[in-house]
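#lab-general

N.A. 3:47 PM
ok so I finally got the sequence cleaned up, no stray characters, all 287 residues accounted for. can someone with queue access submit it? mine expired

B.Y. 3:52 PM
send it over

N.A. 3:53 PM
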Amino acid sequence: MARDLSLDHAPVSNLFSQPSNDAERARYQITEQQVEQFRQQGFLPGIRLLNAEQVEALRVELANLVQADHDGAELWYEYHSNESGDPSAILFHALGAWRIKPGMHDLLWNPALLEPAKQLLEGPVRFWHDQLFCKPAHDGGVVAWHQDYSYWTRTRPMAHLTCWIGLDDATTENGCIQYVPGSHRWPLLPTTNLAKGMDAILDVLTPEQRAEFTPVPCELKAGEAVFHHPLMLHGSYENRSPRPRRAVVINLFRDGTLSDSDKPLLTGVDVIPRGEKMSGRFFPLLP
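B.Y. 4:20 PM
back already:
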């Protein structure tokens, strides 16, 4: 049985070097212009998070994790070998890789992730959960339009941040993430089925929102990331290319966020009673 790496609140490998002083940390920070771009548009693309060696290490781990009988499979919060259910539109989606593989675990302590996150959340950050999204060549399915916080209302206040990290070049052809700029100023929308069709969102938009619904693709190189706001409307279309489109998503929230549920916040996680601060083994404070 695999060791549960949620017990380790520090890196367990040497994949990501750690800054030893403020000057080294500052090398990973984004500019004030980039912070303002995030505030205005709701997303910030093109942030280099991984070098070639780190990309390859995570790809190797992922190749094992997509095998359903891998060691540590009991540690997942969720595991969908094909969330769409359609063999011609495959979407691998799983939560909890940080508990199983050292590289996926240590990604949380990557200063290239944490320094921008602290700037965008305006304070110390805690880990919420990770996600893996994989679309195979030719048959990769969609991720329907949604706002992340629609799935996260079991926490409050809304002080969350998503970081989408490409393990392949993400292009329009292979189903890169797409955004509706400015939609982070919209109110919370109802959820639709995450893996079955792109048009359902249109049924819940107002005429004004439909008029503003002009998606833009966010193409990234492998190892680059995009940060987005928890109300940002985003989704991705099919992969009809001869290349896979694999991504790791890290979800964070500002320290001080509270539980808003008396049920487990993730499958298998101890209850944090409503009104109590999110903390503990599964929601570590990141340096």
